[in-house]
Amino acid sequence: MRLAPYASQPAQSRGRRHPEPPAPTRDDFQRDRDRIVHSTAFRRLVYKTQVFLNHEGDLFRTRLTHSLEVAQLGRSIARSLGLNEDLVEAIALAHDLGHTPFGHAGQDALDACMAGHGGFEHNLQSLRVVDTLEHRYPQYDGLNLSFETREGILKHCARANAERIEAAEPGGVARRFIDRTQPSLEAQLCNLADEIAYNAHDIDDGVRSGLIGIEQLAEVELFERYRCEAVAEHPQLDGRRMLYETIRRMLSAQVYDVIDATRSALAAAAPADADAARRAPPLVGFSPAMRAQSIALKRVLFRDLYRHPQVMQTTVRAQAVVQDLFAAYRADTGEMPVSFASRPDASRAVADYIAGMTDRYALREHERLTGQVWPA
């Protein structure tokens, strides 16, 4: 496929932190994708929580299935816009590599534990994974990914962290948080595909769990419009098929909206190349009407699903597990593998170790160290 002028061109990549000769059959972004797929951190995503804990049901999304859905949506949109599909896929597959066990509950707990030691951000942790924590190659730590993939992985970054990264890597992936410029169009697209994917699959998982009902979603225009269309066209549909068809139509509508809105923004800004797109305002996005509908959907999911008493009860337990693990490892770093226990920054080593755990490994370690069995 021919790339648009404003797409990220692998031949013009800003390169890797450790220079390497080119691969004979793959460009830089394809090589990045392959390194991510073969990483240990990627495999762990299959046992990391999205919303529902991994052991609560076999059919709920995990971080791995979420990342695959983001990659699929991102590639579909990128193909229509002439953006680099391989870069989109690499960013999508890597964007949650630094997420803790137990989803956002684990992240919030670990951030609180690290309050006096630089805090914890899962986007920054994803960058740490690919830059430092993966140990696969003899010449360097990390996966040695290209600048463009690393830039996309670092979706958010606190100012203090951005300045620290900039000091170590002048003009690198954190510079845009200081200059207030944008990442590549492919990175912008991944951010939006992430939002589209989790809104859709959280509806599916929420209804499957019984924690949210169709009647609650009826107040959401983005859902109810396409549910009514599905029922009108297929009145014989049962509950699950009706839900799937509604979500399918929702996803299609959002994808087409992003394509149309982004094409208009690109036509108006007319970036000559990928760097010009970085200097422009954000160019990949929804139309104002679709943005409003997406916000309304998220508001209902937050109120009725993410803050459901059953989810909140699990959240409190999960946070206690992470806090107990942090306290136990800080009290005796010898309880960790020597590769972590021997590091001089004990608190960051503990955070790295816990963040890399799957849900079930964290629970096993918690039981070993405290004698408590989930649920306590």
UniProtKB/TrEMBL annotation:
Region Disordered, residue ranges: 1-33
MF terms (GO), sorted A to Z: dGTPase activity
UniProtKB keywords: Hydrolase
Pfam families documented for this protein: HD, HD_assoc
Residue ranges annotated for the HD domain, each copy included: 63-199
PROSITE patterns: HD
SMART domains, alphabetized: HDc
InterPro entries: dGTPase (IPR006261), dGTPase-like (IPR050135), dNTPase_2 (IPR023023), HD/PDEase_dom (IPR003607), HD_domain (IPR006674), PHydrolase_assoc_dom (IPR026875)
Keyword rRNA-binding: no
HAMAP family: dGTPase_type2
Family note: Belongs to the dGTPase family. Type 2 subfamily.
Annotated protein name in UniProt: Deoxyguanosinetriphosphate triphosphohydrolase-like protein
